[in-house]
Amino acid sequence: VKIVDLRVTPIALADPPLRSSYGLHAPYALRTVVELVGEDGLVGVSEAHGGEQTLGDFARARETIVGHDVYDLARVWLAIARTFGVAAGPDAADRSHTYLLPGEGRLDVPLRVYAAIEVAALDLIGKMVGRPVCDLLGGRVRDEVPFSAYLFYKHSGGGGVGDDARPDVWGEALTPEAIVTQANAMIAAYGFGSVKLKGGVFAPDIEIETMRALREALGPEVPLRIDPNGAWSVETSLRVGAELAGALEYLEDPTPGLGGMAAVRRGLLASGIDVPLASNIAVTSFSDVPEAVRTDAVQVILSDHHYWGGPRAIIQLGRLCETFGLGLSMHSNSHLGVSLLAMTHLAAATPGLTYACDTHYPWQHAADEILQGGRVPIVNGAVRVPDRPGLGVELDRDALARGRERYERCGYCHRDDAVEMCRHVDPSWKRVVPAW
Amino acid sequence: VKIVDLRVTPIALADPPLRSSYGLHAPYALRTVVELVGEDGLVGVSEAHGGEQTLGDFARARETIVGHDVYDLARVWLAIARTFGVAAGPDAADRSHTYLLPGEGRLDVPLRVYAAIEVAALDLIGKMVGRPVCDLLGGRVRDEVPFSAYLFYKHSGGGGVGDDARPDVWGEALTPEAIVTQANAMIAAYGFGSVKLKGGVFAPDIEIETMRALREALGPEVPLRIDPNGAWSVETSLRVGAELAGALEYLEDPTPGLGGMAAVRRGLLASGIDVPLASNIAVTSFSDVPEAVRTDAVQVILSDHHYWGGPRAIIQLGRLCETFGLGLSMHSNSHLGVSLLAMTHLAAATPGLTYACDTHYPWQHAADEILQGGRVPIVNGAVRVPDRPGLGVELDRDALARGRERYERCGYCHRDDAVEMCRHVDPSWKRVVPAW
Fold first, then answer.
1. Buried b / exposed e along A304-326 (16+ C-beta atoms within 10 A)
2. ipTM more than 0.90?
3. The pTM is what?
4. Which of A93, A414, B64, B103 has the fewest CB within 10 Å, making it most exposed?
């Protein structure tokens, strides 16, 4: 079946004022909905990073994609790689970009464009042959994919502006106590069995206190993670690691760069602390893996099909991780249900993905979802793998149109959490890495 | 579509008296034809190692496979792993078995059983959805898959006994001159652009002389390889490597074990000789890869979907090789057209597989082929990737029945090249590794 069209729809969705070491989430998160139209009229869907550059990237790739058979993905990749002027190896395009927000780097553009096409193609093929996407990836090893509660220090507000303003379901959370409240509410609503805190926002002692309060409140059986997005020096990372030893399932990106991560690992082991280090900043592509392995800088790779080059690349990464004794987990950006289900199918088909995956989904509001039937249920902390063909989604055209209208009037065309931070919290704020 | 039956047919095919460091090929090579029957009546085919133990393995796995959906391969693997009493990681079953013939080891049985099922399932799915197997693996990067001429020191005889005796197309080849004749004849018949000599048979000086004669006769543009199957000590490997420096595309398994291979690599590099070492003996599974990488023992992995765990495993290995800067090539055992086409689809869908693959196919005779339409053409040294659904093969039932009859009367129930060597060449022969 030939691909006859590539439809690309930019959308914006309300996003609450969440904090991280990158700054502050804007009132809108941007996404791109990609539709691959087959000559038989079937349409495959996927969801990608948002904003004007991403739109331009898809526009540029469009011509090279249309006309290919929907199964001909290896050559679609080669064509995309050529279009963006990179050598045709999957790693030629993607050097680590430690200091950029995921989706805002330019070096992994071909991988991001291809990833969206692969997901849409798998959705289309699944619809064509009447099978769920996980089956096309080799079959599922689990029927439900566990996700983790993703806690954020947060200002008051529900995201969106004017008519788009959403109720502030979660409230302000700028203290350890408020984070515990947030955790309890999110667990009550979704049943999450693992909890991650986005750190790197306050001084490490406050974040240590927050983690201890979570441990105290949730009990010893709930796995906890903290992710300061590289906001700490090696010394601070060692101190936090020592303070939280035994309380962490893994410590995510405490410090920037593979060298820093390796130093933290060595230091922790020298103190008898064997908490795994996870990363989606020091390791963002296959080309980062050899050094990570050689120096033992990372023990858990936080994969993301959106920028590693699609679901099949992640399954390959899973085998690589199993081979080298690395753990595999899954990173998330603000996203809607299409991405959530792509992540779910992929995780179901990846044996080595044994950690609960990250998701920002609870931070989004039902009014912004673009799926018929509304939001994807997360029950007992898990998403059930759909048995329906493809990803198991149908777009709600009206909701998609509203998302596009929001995009057009919201005034945002790319993500810049630092600008947002200066605008709303602290005019003199600058991202410094490491900050502590 | 549920799998309702697993049909397993042992066959024997005439095999000429080829020599290697394992000894002598018997007059028959043994294979197993596996047919997966779907509830819709469609049948998927694959070809596996042969003999009684393999038959028993499939019989034991049968119950666990029947009843699964044909797409449900991840769980089929888990069920097979459980059946054979190994932990459910793909690597738990497979430790390196340096001294065993491929297909005769017992430790990779679950991977070999699963691999045959995966190929048959992909063939069945391909027929069901009307697509070639390479498309199910992610699409092809090439339309033709190059294979290498596979030269052997050989006694006179065409293989088979009595009514099964095949004409000796290639003649005796026990000298450098005769190997050159063999090479020229094989290139004339198939158009191969790369040449591999199975060594480890005669004293290294004779094999060096053979390689030099080939280089002389074929010219500098034909890539040459030699594979003594670990018959040489580290010292001998270094000497041969030095003597043949510049004449080799790669040096395959000169010496046994990862430690030995690493020592050869270090020694060669110390002498300024950067010929890659290839292996299908020191590296036979994912579990061998980390040490191979760490010690730089192997620069080219000779993959084989038959014992690595199926086509998808090899594609995953391909990504791993790209990531770590390793080359990827393909190993072969004596086989018929079903395996040849499985290798072809897989190689077409594996971007990193940039070396011409091994194949024993020229050593087999048309009278032993089990495909409708007869032997698969190798033209200009390459097999064209079929566009037909599945592997693109249909079994010739009469030919298959004849293969089974040959199996039943041939008197061979497993491969033992050492026994054969004693019986026909030298009663006192024993495999010694390293021999020189």
1. bbbbbbbbbbbbbbbbbbbbbeb
2. yes
3. 0.96
4. A414
